[in-house]
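Q: what sequence does this backbone want?
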């Protein structure tokens, strides 16, 4: 049996499971289907060991380098 995971963009409400900072990476575990959320720093720290155990590695760290949109008055 396979379950489709609906991927959604991570928001400011999603927090790193290690330190509580804003999460930019979601790791969905193959074994349980559970998910772990990480900030960019902690995602890099665990990626080599954790990524092979995931069914999905959603990395949105490129958003850290985006410039915010300018709102006209």
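A:
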């Amino acid at each position: 049996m396979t379950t489709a995971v609906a991927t959604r963009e991570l928001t400011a409400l999603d927090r790193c499971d290690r330190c509580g900072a804003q999460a930019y990476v979601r790791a969905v575990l193959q074994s349980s289907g559970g998910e772990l959320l990480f900030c960019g720093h902690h995602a890099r720290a665990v990626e080599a060991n954790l990524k092979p155990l995931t069914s999905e590695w959603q990395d949105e760290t490129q958003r850290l380098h985006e410039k915010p949109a300018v709102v006209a008055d």
